[in-house]
Amino acid sequence: MGNPEGLQALEEQRLGPVLRRRDQVQPGTTDQRLLDTEGDSQWVHTDPWRVMRIQSEFVEGFGALAELPSAISVFGSARTAPGTPEYEAGIRIGKALVEAGFAVITGGGPGAMEAANRGAREAKGISVGLGIELPYEQGLNPHVDIGVNFRYFFVRKTMFVKYASGFVVLPGGLGTLDELFEALTLVQTGKVTRFPIVLFGTEYWSGLVDWLRHTVVAKGKASEKDLVLFHVTDDVEEAVSLVTKETGH
Fold this sequence. Notes:
This protein is an alpha/beta fold. The protein has helices at residues 30-35, 47-65, 85-99, 112-122, 153-162, 174-188, 202-217, 236-247; strands spanning 12-15, 18-21, 71-75, 103-106, 127-132, 146-150, 167-169, 197-200, 231-233. It has a 7-stranded parallel β-sheet with strand order 6-5-4-3-7-8-9, sandwiched between helices. A two-stranded antiparallel sheet has the order 1-2. The termini are far apart.
């Protein structure tokens, strides 16, 4: 069994579904490297190992949220200070969504996210936080009842969409804009259907809406009908009504 000593090096090697040839051939076999306790530990930092971590994050997220009732994801700035009108609006939105029969999902952090979670908890609803590993640790806010922390943004964003029936977007920064445009793209391309997106705060969002209308649409980079993919309001009841109407909840 095995190659006799002195046999010419392999020109072709098959490692499961992977084919390696010439100078890409690796010494030994996959199970040999697995069982070799003296081997290099760098393998835990390789892309194939990261795939396993990514898979485990999907499994944990799906497992934690699979039995969640109808939910709405609420986004907004982590920098929104308690006691401000925006923070109070977040509390009212969280409460109103629970009273309308929804669970509330946020990014689990402070600011506007904390406000929506707080409103959901005070209304005795289900308050969910989907956190993310960052260089500056924030941790999940104390109003989260079900919390999942993720390493990878794209896994977390999948959970926001998969387990929510719509988005309410409070004033926020780059992270909020990322989540907003991800949702708009999914609706525009038909990847998700019956998915209402409500921008809360007319004054805050008016500049973005004007830019979309007078620059993006005007220059042919999007169509006029894309502007009806979202609604803008300052009224909590209207925001919840739009979500309820479009989800058929």
